[in-house]
Amino acid sequence: MTKRIIGLTGGIATGKTTVTNYLASAYNLPILDADIYAREAVSLGSPILGAIAQRYGEQILLPNGSLNRQKLGEIIFNRQDERNWIENLIHPDVRDRFLKAIAQSNSQILVLVVPLLFEAGMTDLVTEIWVVRCSQEQQLQRLIQRNHLNREQAQARINSQNQLSIEEKVAHADVILDNSSTLEVLLEQVDVALKPEVGNSSYLS
């Protein structure tokens, strides 16, 4: 049976983590997270970390030799060319990690959480695309609350994400999860999106 591979994406603070946690806890689905793979890609001693240090100097490293993420964030925050350089370095490694994990998994349903699913050209890895969305004002308010930012800082964070607009993502989605109402309403949409396959226990790991 062909694997069902869900590509879960959406903008920052739209609710991807909420959906991910529910799929893992309620349905026991394996979660493959691009952010985790990206952190592994720049781990201590990795070739990618070496390339980053060569480009930006020792200032980009912490005393123990690991990546100073805050410093890197400051460099790429308003520098689109540097952000592109970093992403072009990391995305192929993340893609390879996804391919290996998909091949090794025995589960018939996998969830790939990829904030830059479209932008990184990884849509071919999945069989369906789920986009979590909410209004721009809700996204802003949730980011302010979650990261303890003021409005200007939160808007700058959203603007710096190097992502397609949520409208563009929605236009290419197979499933749209509207997170503009209550948690219960959001999770009901997830339940509907998974049916009827979840009724067959052979799909679950």
Descriptive notes:
- By secondary structure, the chain is of the alpha/beta class.
- 50% of the residues lie in helices and 12% in strands.
- It has 9 helices and 5 strands.
- It has a 5-stranded parallel beta sheet, sandwiched between helices.
- The longest helix is centred in the middle third of the chain and has 25 residues, at 80-104.
- Mean pLDDT is 92; it is low at 199-205.
**Strand order within the widest sheet?**
2-3-1-4-5
Number of strands: 5
Distance between the termini: 14 Å
Note poorly predicted spans.
199-205
Give the overall shape, derived from the CA principal axes.
Answer: globular
Mean pLDDT: 92
Number of helices: 9
Tell me the helix content: 40-55%
- Portion of residues in beta strands equals 5-15%
Keywords:
205 residues, 5-stranded parallel beta sheet, alpha/beta, disordered C terminus, 9 helices
Short structural summary:
The protein contains 9 helices and 5 strands, in the order βαβααααββαααβα. The protein is of the alpha/beta class and 205 residues long. The chain has a 5-stranded parallel β-sheet with strand order 2-3-1-4-5, sandwiched between helices.
